[in-house]
Design goal:
Structural class: mainly alpha
Strand content: under 5%
Oligomer: single chain
Number of strands: 0
Shape: rod-shaped
Length: 75
């Protein structure tokens, strides 16, 4: 099997074209993988920022409510 693959790729007539096709497919796969990973990282970063802002909002709301409910304070 390996010998046939080498003959296929090292063929003087069509080997250059076949190697170029394989190289192009590998480059494309690499680019697609990088784009997918980059997109996933960006998505996770945005989700984390959103959760942080939501948590801050909840804490601030609870602080405001507790300050308004303290006895002896007049508004």
């Amino acid at each position: 099997g390996a010998g046939a693959a080498l003959m296929y790729l090292l063929d003087p007539d069509g080997g250059n074209r076949r190697r170029a096709l394989i190289r192009d497919k590998m480059v494309k796969l690499n680019r697609q993988t990088q784009e997918a990973v980059s997109g996933r990282v960006k998505d996770m970063s945005n989700r984390a920022k959103g959760m942080l802002h939501e948590a801050k909002s909840i804490v601030e709301t609870e602080e405001n409510v507790s300050q308004q409910q303290q006895p002896g304070t007049f508004s």
